[in-house]
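Subject: complex prediction, re-run

Hi both,

The earlier run crashed halfway through, so I resubmitted it with identical inputs.
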Amino acid sequence: MNSLLMRYRSVLVLIVVLTVVTMLIRANTVWLDTSVVIAIYSLIALSVGISYGQAGILSVAQAAFASVGAYATAIVTARYDLPAAVGLVLALLLPPLIAYPLARLVTRLNALSLAIATLVFGQAFDIILREGGDFTGGYIGLSGIPPLPFASGLLQFHFVAWGAVLIVAVLLSNLIDSPFGRATNTLRSDTLRAVADGVNVPHVRSAILAFSASVAGLGGWLYAHHIAYIGPDSLGPSVSLSVLLMAVVGGAQTVLGPIIGAALLTLLFKFIPSQEVQGMFYGGALIAVLVLTPNGLMGLRTVIGRWMKSSATKRERATANVATGVSAARRAS
Amino acid sequence: MSIEVEKIDVRFGGVTALQDVGLTLQRGEVLAVIGPNGSGKSTLFNAITGFVDIASGSVAVDGKDMAGIPAASRIASGISRTFQTPRINPAATVEDSVLCGFHPHARISFWEGLLRPPAMSRTEAELRRRRTRVLEQLDLLGFAEQQMGELPMGIVRMVDIARAMAAEPNYLLLDEPAAGLSKTEQNVLIQQVRQLAKQGVGVLLVEHNFGLIRRLADRVIVLDRGKVLLRGTADEVSKRPEFVTAYLGTSVQ
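This time it finished cleanly. Structure:
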């Protein structure tokens, strides 16, 4: 029971916060829209948390994986009038089908080569989209993507999007607390150590990247049905970097970190409207977080914990001093 | 049932780290490899476990040739090893570190990890029970919740050995396990290694502490500059002048 609470504590916190926020914003369409956008970015940032935070794979193609999911559902629903559920299956399956072999091919080399491979994939996918003619809509993209039949209202979509985030949070919490998750953790800090534990490193790394690609694809699926349009710039390389930033700012190794990062930076985006200075604030946020708490905002817990511990010992020492002072005074009198 | 190493050569570029080295490690025996620094002891470990490629010769485990079998699979099939410098994650607790050693037995796939079926919870509970047992055997229960980075070297080494033992290997390769251990810890180690050997585990030991080797090893192999210099029991070896020369250097006349 206790271990169950420990395993799902992030999920529980998320449920409580979501309940409160939903009650506050349920009638406000502007805020509901922002909330949906945060949920979608949370999913893509969570995909960074899975690949980078858990396995140390620096993938700069997470938005491209999301884009694969978004285009898949856009093509089958807008062009072939198939149900959005078919789009969901494709959005969940196609990105990992690309990610697994990609990782398997290059993961024998060092970690940096995998990062470069994801960069190349992202760029190649960008070209495919732009040169894809009618199939991908080329430079113009695809519009007229139908809304989800069971979530036509914004409030329903808010529930669907955050429901998806919750499901991913549960799955990630499960994974972290499993032998597979422990192996992933070991290989992030020390590959040779993982090999000496008998861990099949290429498989674990590839499976994690595949899972993260699938989560990104889920985010892309929601994106397409929320915005009703997808183009080559919607979930382009710059989004890959933004979500990386979100995950790092929030704390990539935790379940809640990427979600906090996504919420924070999306709100920052919303309140600093002028495009020119946004980059400055993004960079500033990154530097501030990395200097103050290198493990992201979720790392603040340990920073605060340590600070409270040290101030507690100081207070104890002070009380002890006072006590000795009092007894000394007594003795003197 | 044994590890058979036959005439292996290991080269790093132009440097020959091991040349024509052979050994047999039976299950249930303790074999010590000694030699001065740079004589190829750790390389021998790496060659057996597949961490380095051999240029020629062969390594066979229980009659099965290991050529082409990756290191992780060799570990999973029953050869555990420790490192001369323990490889640790300083942020991990002792109990979590040892839990990682059960990997070959966990047999839990990615999907099970993700979806956590009831069967997996049972496996996890069983692994945690076995972890407590291993920690108890090595006298480490008191450190279970401490972080690896906070512990003295002796304890870190013992945790590393616990992690290797957790896989319940048929062969255990210990690279300088007693370095930095206190007398008490050394005694626990000796007792555990004897116990493992009695249970039928073949133990290969790289060690500099000759007193420990005397108490523990059935046989000794002396390596010098990548070649086998001597073989025999600890007492036999220690009386040979070549051993003294290789190990302590020649006296200046």
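The first strand of chain A starts at residue 142 and ends at 143.

- K.
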